[in-house]
């Protein structure tokens, strides 16, 4: 696992927000990386959380793309929607090592932003429509809240319907 000294993702996020004059709020809480549990700690419904999943998208035999799928916390990533979006042969979850390297964060702390040119961000329309969007701020013990509109302006995700129904 990469150390904090290697990937200063939290500081980079805060710097981006501060230099962009975005209204945001930091929330300290007990260390937690699962969506339902951290939403309870932060005191909001899971629908207001950004769930971030790193995917491996095989477009053809020679072309693989890495995609950061961002969906509401109470939904799941629709792999078939991602497959159709990229006209891909295969879509699956990235292995942990690749996900950590590209997201520059450990599982449970992946931001809905990409600081790596190899990681494309695709966000569901329900994410950018949120008046308040919550996510772990590249740390298990600190979260961030900002508007979906500010998130969209700064992260510049490709906005596509990629969220499936809630997991059962």
From TrEMBL:
<dbReference type="Pfam" id="PF04073">
    <property type="entry name" value="tRNA_edit"/>
</dbReference>
<dbReference type="InterPro" id="IPR036754">
    <property type="entry name" value="YbaK/aa-tRNA-synt-asso_dom_sf"/>
</dbReference>
<protein>
    <submittedName>
        <fullName>YbaK/EbsC family protein</fullName>
    </submittedName>
</protein>
<feature type="domain" description="YbaK/aminoacyl-tRNA synthetase-associated">
    <location>
        <begin position="29"/>
        <end position="154"/>
    </location>
</feature>
<dbReference type="InterPro" id="IPR007214">
    <property type="entry name" value="YbaK/aa-tRNA-synth-assoc-dom"/>
</dbReference>
């Amino acid at each position: 696992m990469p150390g904090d000294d290697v990937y200063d993702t939290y500081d980079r996020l805060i710097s981006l927000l501060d230099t962009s004059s975005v209204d945001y709020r930091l929330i300290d809480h007990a260390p937690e990386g699962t969506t339902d549990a951290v939403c309870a700690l932060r005191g909001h419904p899971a629908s207001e959380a950004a769930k971030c999943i790193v995917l491996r998208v095989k477009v053809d035999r020679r072309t693989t793309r890495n995609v950061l799928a961002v969906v509401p916390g109470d939904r799941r990533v629709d792999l078939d929607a991602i497959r159709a979006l990229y006209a891909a042969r295969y879509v699956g979850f990235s292995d942990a090592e690749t996900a950590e390297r590209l997201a520059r964060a450990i599982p449970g702390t992946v931001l809905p932003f990409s600081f790596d040119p190899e990681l494309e961000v695709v966000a569901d329309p329900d994410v950018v429509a949120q008046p308040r969007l919550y996510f772990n701020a590249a740390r298990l013990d600190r979260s961030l809240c900002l508007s979906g509109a500010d998130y969209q302006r700064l992260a510049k995700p490709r906005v596509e319907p990629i969220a499936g129904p809630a997991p059962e």
